[in-house]
Amino acid sequence: xxxxxxxxxxxxxxxxxxxxxxxxxxxxxxxxxxxxxxxxxxxxxxxxxxxxxxxxxxxxxxxxxxxxxxxxxxxxxxxxxxxxxxxxxxxxxxxxxxxxxxxxxxxxxxxxxxxxxxxxxxxxxxxxxxxxxxxxxxxxxxxxxxxxxxxxxxxxxxxxxxxxxxxxxxxxxxxxxxxxxxxxxxxxxxxxxxxxxxxxxxxxxxxxxxxxxxxxxxxxxxxxxxxxxxxxxxxxxxxxxxxxxxxxxxxxxxxxxxxxxxxxxxxxxxxxxxxxxxxxxxxxxxxxxxxxxxxxxxxxxxxxxxxxxxxxxxxxxxxxxxxxxxxxxxxxxxxxxxxxxxxxxxxxxxxxxxxxxxxxxxx
Length: 363
Ligand SMILES: NC(=O)c1ccc[n+]([C@@H]2O[C@H](COP(=O)([O-])OP(=O)(O)OC[C@H]3O[C@@H](n4cnc5c(N)ncnc54)[C@H](O)[C@@H]3O)[C@@H](O)[C@H]2O)c1
Hints:
This protein has twelve helices and 15 strands. 43% of the residues are buried. The protein has helices at residues 11-22, 36-45, 56-60, 76-85, 100-112, 127-137, 168-171, 173-184, 280-293, 302-321, 330-342, 351-358; strands at 2-7, 26-32, 50-52, 66-69, 89-92, 117-119, 144-152, 188-198, 206-213, 218-224, 237-244, 248-253, 257-263, 268-274, 326-327. A hairpin with a 4-residue loop joins strand 9 and strand 10. The chain is α/β, with parallel strands linked by helices. The longest helix has 20 residues, at 302-321. Helix 5 (100-112) runs antiparallel to helix 10 (302-321) and helix 8 crosses helix 10. The strands form two sheets. It has a nine-stranded mixed sheet with strand order 14-13-12-11-7-10-9-8-15, with helices on one face. A six-stranded parallel sheet has the order 3-2-1-4-5-6, with helices on both faces. Residues 7-13, 32-35, 38, 55, 70-73, 75, 93-94, 120, 122, 161-162, 165, 171, 278, 351 line the site of nicotinamide-adenine-dinucleotide (NAD).
C-alpha cells in the first residue's frame, strides 16, 4: 500500500478521499485543510486518517510516499517544492500555480527530480475520448482535419471561489485547450479569440477561440459558464465533434452518461456508458500502479497541464484584447448568485455552502 497525505478537502479533495479509501493500493493517512468544517466532514469519509491544518506534518512523515495537492493554485507551488524536497511523489490538481511563469519553473523542478508528478487533466482518463482517439488512429475517418469542442454549463460564477485559478476560460477551459491539443497531436500555431463580458462582469465568462495547429488541423473551442443560469430547468451543451477527410466522430454527455457516435468508412459505432464525473478512480489507480512499477502507465503529465494552462491564458488575453463586449447587468449576476446560494442540485455549486445548508454535498 502507498501511504498518502492529501491537502485540500473541498469539492475535489472529497472526491479523491472517497476513491482513495476504496482502492486497496492506497492508505489515506492524513487529510489537511485550513477549514475546520472541512476537517470535520473528512472524518466521515476516512475515520482512520489524521486530520490537521498543518501541512508540514505530512511532509515530515518519512512513511508518506505520496502527497495529493487539492487546495487552490496559490498554495500549490510551495507544497510541490516541499514534496520534491522531502522525496514524495505528487498527485496534483490543475493548474499547478496561479501564474504561468511559476508553472514552468515547477515543471523544470519536476523534470530534475526522480519523482512522479501527475496533474489531473481528467479528460485524458475518459473512456469516450480514448475511444474516439483510437478510432481516428485506425484511419476510419480518413485524415483528421477539424476538432470542435464545446463546454457550456450554468456553472461556477464569479465570486464563488477559485480566484487563484483565474476566470472560467482558464479555470475550466484549460481542460478543453488540452483536449483539442491531444486530439490534434500537435502544438498550437495560431488562434483568434472572442469573448463576452456577461452581466457586465470585468472578465469575459464565455470565450470562443478558433485557429490552427502546426500540423494543419484546425479547431474551435467554446467554453462558458453562462448557459442559462436562471432557466427554470437548467441544461448544458457539451460536445466534441471530430471531422476527418472521410468520416466523423462525436461525443455528447449529460454528466451521467456519455454517448460516442463514430461514422467511419467501414464501421458505424454508437456507444453509451457512464460519464463518471472526474474519473478520479482511474486517476488514482493508474498513478498507484505507475509508482509501483516505476514508469508512467498513462497518467496525465505536468508538461501537458502547463502547456494547457499557458495557452488558455494566452487565448483569454486575446479575447480581452479583441474587445469582449458587455452584455447584461451586475443586478442579473446578483440574482444568479442569490439563486445558487439556495440551490441544492446544480452545476459546480460551491461545496461548503451546500453542506452547511443541507447537511450533505449536492454538488
Ligand atoms: N480537474 C478538474 O476537473 C477540477 C475540477 C474542479 C476543481 N479542480 C481544481 O481542484 C482544486 C480544488 O478545487 P475545489 O473545487 O475542490 O475547491 P474548493 O474551494 O471546494 O476546496 C478547496 C479546499 O482547500 C482548502 N484550502 C485552501 N487553501 C489551503 C491550504 N493552504 N492548505 C490546506 N487547505 C487549503 C479550503 O479550505 C477548501 O476546503 C483547484 O485547484 C481547482 O482548480 C479541478
